[in-house]
Design goal:
By secondary structure, the protein is an alpha/beta fold. It has 15 helices and 14 strands. It has an eight-stranded mixed β-sheet, with helices on both faces. The relative contact order is 0.12.
Length: about 375
């Protein structure tokens, strides 16, 4: 089994390193080699005469190109829309709505397998229980454009929330695409945005006896546990509330049933150009990057609709989204209100669990791939 990473404006460049740690792939092709792979596939080792390309994320067109170039069959896992149904041998849909959007002539090749994220609930284990207390997860993101805002913003939220609720404890899952050293850099003078916030990282200590977590202390003395093992599903599932940016992390939290507040501070739009689509590509062109990126981000924020995955899935506001010129003080006060109301937290958790669906999507998708393999390999 091979992994091919595709061009993506939101990529960090560390994806291949993360994938190697899984020890699941015979070969990994990085995104920067994708075009060369299309032109000269034999340069990247021998390829079987027949096979299957499985699309799991990114721009669906790249996997269409790859399957056409290799002459392989193609299956797309579609969360919201299948963009190239005519080029797919099979479409594995997250929900019936995906299938309903397809032209009638393509619906027979689509099967609803469910939400892959729902299987996270089966994988989350509390093998290492968090110390007693009311826990808040801080999730500033995994990409540069989000981290340079999210890290200083959420550290100040933690400092303010610690004063409002002295018994509150904090967990920061360090994304696999970043490091604690990089997080420290986001609160230093190397990040101009850090000057807009009052918090900073003072020290990072090694784990105490019998513990696996390093701890980060802010200049104000707030203690934050660092979850550096991946995935962080077990510790995350024990948190009472999460403060998070937009992105796939909202789907992860939803699958784990963790109540959340989704925050998008728009006062730093000039650095928030991590949008996708054609306009996102234009925003990164030399000479147009700053202006179009700022214009695009401002337009998207004004017409954002629903941003968090649980809200998109439900078609309504299940988890609060705070978008605009929000401040750490406002978020800390709102978080304190949620933490003081266990009934509200339980209500949001129940809503998230009702949206999660039944586990089994991973097995169903794997079966669809196997169904294609015999024909692809000439065994049937």
């Amino acid at each position: 089994m091979r992994l091919v990473l595709v061009p993506c404006p939101n990529a960090t460049g560390h994806e291949a390193d993360v994938a190697r740690q899984w020890n699941q792939f015979e070969q990994i092709t990085t995104a920067k080699c994708f075009w060369d792979l299309l032109l000269r596939p034999r340069r990247y080792g021998p390829w079987p005469a027949k096979g299957v390309v499985v699309f799991l994320g990114g721009d669906q067109f790249w996997s269409v190109l790859l399957s056409a170039r290799l002459g392989y069959r193609h299956i797309t896992y579609a969360e919201w829309v299948a963009r190239w149904p005519g080029w797919n041998d099979r479409i594995a849909a997250m929900s019936p709505q995906v299938k309903e959007q397809l032209p009638n002539r393509f619906r027979e090749r689509c099967i609803v397998v469910g939400d892959l994220m729902a299987d996270l609930s089966c994988l989350a284990k509390a093998d290492a229980p968090l110390p007693p207390g009311q826990w808040v997860a801080l999730m500033p993101g995994s990409k540069l454009a989000k981290l340079c805002v999210g890290v200083p913003f959420l550290l100040e939220v933690a400092d303010r929330l610690a004063k409002l609720r002295p018994g509150c404890r904090f967990l920061l899952p360090v994304a696999s695409t970043t490091s604690v050293a990089e997080l420290q850099g986001f609160t230093s003078s190397s990040n101009p945005i850090a000057a807009a916030y009052d918090s900073a990282i003072a020290t990072v200590t090694q784990p105490e006896a019998g513990q696996s977590w390093r701890r980060m202390f802010t200049a104000a003395g707030t203690e934050i546990y660092l979850q550096e093992d991946h995935p962080a599903h077990g510790p995350l599932s024990q948190c009472d509330l999460a403060l998070t940016t937009v992105g796939a992390n909202t789907a992860e939290l939803g699958a784990l049933g963790v109540p959340m507040i989704v925050i998008v501070p728009t006062q730093h739009l000039a650095v928030m150009q991590a949008w996708d689509g054609g306009f996102g590509l234009l925003a990164r062109l030399p000479g147009l990057r700053w202006f179009l990126g700022l214009l695009l981000s401002a337009w998207r924020m004004r017409h954002h609709g629903l941003l968090a995955w649980p809200n998109i899935s439900a078609g309504r506001m299940v988890v609060p989204e705070r978008v605009g010129r929000i401040t750490p003080e406002q978020i800390a006060e709102e978080a304190a209100g949620w933490l003081a109301s266990p009934e509200r937290l339980k209500g949001q958790q129940d809503d998230l669990r009702s949206l999660r669906g039944q586990p089994g999507a991973v097995a169903a998708l794997a079966q669809e791939v196997r169904n294609l393999l015999p024909r692809a390999l000439g065994d049937a």
